[in-house]
C-alpha cells in the first residue's frame, strides 16, 4: 500500500544572535510561530496539535519550560507533546509531528521552540551535567572535550589535519555570510581559524559553534489536507533514527561497540531514511545536505555517514570544493550548526533549511536546481541521531 505523504507548509525562524535581551523565552517561540503562520495561509484554529521542541531546559533557565510554551504557541485545548533528545530535539520534534499525521491522529501539526544558549552563563558547565556523575563527568566532559576526542580519533584513522578542520569553517562561514538568519556571518581564512585560541586540542575557538539565541517553528499537514486546499508544500519522504550507548568510554579502543570517529549510529539513521525514501545512491540522488555538525571536525564523519563520500575521503573532497555552494553536493549552505546553535531548535532548522532549498526559497544561499535534500540532527553525548529526506 502506498503510504500517504506528509508535507511541510510553513517555516519560521528567528535571526539568531548571541543574545536576545529584547525578547523573553516565550517571546522567541512566538516570534518563530508567527513567521511560520504567515507563510502557511492558515489560522491558529486550523492547527490540531503542537510538538514542543525543548532540549535541556537549564539553557533557558526555567525548569520544565514547556509549560510556558503552551500559551506562546497557542496550544490551549490542543494536543501538546514536549520532545527532548538533546541536540537532536529539533529533528525528533519534526518527526513526532510527522507521526501525528501519518498515524491519522491529526491533519495539521505545528512544531516550535526556542533557546537562549547565549544567555545561559556557560554552556559547557551546564552541558557537563549530562554525563554520568561518577565515571565521566569529572574528566571533565563538555561537548567540546567530547568531540575533541572524536577529532583526535578521526585524525589518527584518516589523516585529518587542523588545517582541514579550518577549511570546514571557511566554507561554512562563507555560506553563513549569505544567510541573514545565521549568528556568525563574518568570512574567515584558514589562517584566521588557525590563529584563534585553543579550546580543547585540536579544537580552536573558530572550530566551535557559538552559543545562540532564537526560535524555530514548522507546520506540517497531511497530503489530503494540502491537496484539498491546493496549498504549496514540500514533502518528507524518508525519516530515520538511531541511538548509541550512553557511556562514551564504550565507543573507543580496540573492543569498541562503535568507534567515536565514525558516527556509526548516525549512518544507521541515514540508511533508515534512505530506505524509506528509495534513495539507493545518495551521491547521485541528494542535491543538498544540512548536516548537524557543531564542531568543524564532525562535519567530516557526518558527510561520510550520510553516504555523500566514502569513509575517510571527505577531507579531500571538501578541499576540492565539492561541498561548497556551486559544488556537486553543497553541505550546510545555511552555514549550518557551526555558525548558529540555539540547541533546542538547531536540528529543526537543519530540516527547515533543506525544505527551503528544495522549495527554491533559500534566497542568496539557494542551491540551484535542488529537488532532493537530506537533514540530520545529533544529540545527547553524541547519542541520539535523526535524519530526514525532503523532496519538492
Ligand atoms: C549536540 C550539540 O549541539 S553539541 C554543541 C552545543 N553547543 C556548545 O557546546 C557551545 C559551544 N561553544 C561554546 O561553548 C563557546 O562559544 C566557547 C567556549 C567556544 C567560547 O566561549 P567563551 O570563551 O565564553 O567566549 P565568549 O563568549 O567570552 O566570547 C569571546 C569572543 O569570542 C567570540 N566567540 C564566542 N564563541 C565563538 C565561536 N564559537 N566561534 C567564533 N567566535 C566565538 C565572541 O563573539 C567574542 O568575540 P568579541 O570579543 O569580539 O565579542
From TrEMBL:
Domain annotation Thiolase C-terminal: ranges: 263-390
Thiolase N-terminal domain span: 16-183
Catalytic EC class: transferase
Enzyme Commission number(s) from the entry: 2.3.1.9
Keywords: Acyltransferase, Transferase
Superkingdom of source: Bacteria
Listed Pfam families: Thiolase_C_1, Thiolase_N
Alphabetized GO MF terms: acetyl-CoA C-acetyltransferase activity
Official protein name in the record: Acetyl-CoA C-acetyltransferase
Organism listed in the record: Glaciimonas immobilis
Amino acid at each position: 500500500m502506498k503510504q500517504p505523504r506528509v508535507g511541510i507548509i510553513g517555516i519560521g525562524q528567528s535571526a539568531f544572535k548571541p543574545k536576545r535581551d529584547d525578547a523573553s523565552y516565550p517571546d522567541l517561540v512566538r516570534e518563530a510561530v508567527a513567521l511560520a503562520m504567515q507563510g502557511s495561509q492558515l489560522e491558529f484554529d486550523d492547527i490540531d496539535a503542537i510538538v514542543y521542541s525543548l532540549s535541556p531546559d537549564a539553557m533557558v533557565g526555567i525548569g520544565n519550560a514547556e509549560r510556558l510554551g503552551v500559551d506562546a504557541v497557542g496550544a490551549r485545548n490542543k494536543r501538546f507533546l514536549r520532545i527532548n533528545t538533546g541536540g537532536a530535539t529539533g529533528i525528533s520534534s519534526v518527526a513526532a509531528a510527522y507521526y501525528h499525521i501519518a498515524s491519522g491522529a491529526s491533519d495539521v501539526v505545528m512544531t516550535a521552540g526556542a533557546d537562549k544558549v547565549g544567555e545561559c552563563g556557560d554552556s559547557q558547565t551546564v552541558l557537563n551535567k549530562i554525563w554520568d556523575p561518577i565515571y565521566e563527568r569529572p574528566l571533565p566532559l563538555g561537548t567540546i572535550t567530547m568531540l575533541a576526542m572524536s577529532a583526535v580519533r578521526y585524525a589518527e584513522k584518516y589523516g585529518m589535519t587542523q588545517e582541514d578542520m579550518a577549511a570546514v569553517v571557511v566554507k561554512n562561514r562563507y555560506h553563513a555570510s549569505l544567510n541573514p538568519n545565521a549568528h556568525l556571518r563574518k568570512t574567515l581564512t584558514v589562517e584566521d581559524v588557525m590563529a584563534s585560541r585553543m579550546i580543547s586540542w585540536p579544537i580552536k575557538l573558530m572550530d566551535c559553534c557559538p552559543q545562540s539565541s532564537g526560535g524555530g517553528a514548522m507546520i506540517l499537514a497531511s497530503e489530503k489536507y494540502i491537496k484539498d486546499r491546493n496549498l504549496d508544500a514540500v514533502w518528507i519522504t524518508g525519516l530515520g533514527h538511531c541511538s548509541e550507548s550512553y557511556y562514551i568510554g564504550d565507543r573507543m579502543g580496540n573492543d569498541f561497540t562503535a568507534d567515536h570517529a565514525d558516527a556509526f549510529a548516525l549512518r544507521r539513521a541515514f540508511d533508515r531514511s534512505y530506505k524509506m525514501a528509495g534513495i539507493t545512491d545518495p551521491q547521485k540522488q541528494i542535491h543538498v545536505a544540512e548536516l548537524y555538525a557543531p564542531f568543524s571536525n564532525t562535519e567530516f564523519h557526518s558527510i561520510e555517514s550520510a553516504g555523500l563520500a566514502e569513509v575517510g575521503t571527505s577531507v579531500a573532497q571538501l578541499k576540492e570544493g565539492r561541498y561548497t555552494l556551486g559544488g556537486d553536493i553543497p553541505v550546510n549552505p545555511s552555514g549550518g550548526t557551526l555558525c548558529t546553535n540555539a540547541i533546542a531548535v538547531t536540528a529543526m532548522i537543519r530540516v527547515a533549511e533543506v525544505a527551503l532549498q528544495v522549495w527554491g526559497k533559500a534566497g542568496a544561499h539557494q542551491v540551484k536546481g535542488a529537488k532532493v535534500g537530506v537533514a540530520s540532527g545529533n544529540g545527547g553525548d553524541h547519542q541520539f541521531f535523526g535524519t530526514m529526506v525532503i523532496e519538492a
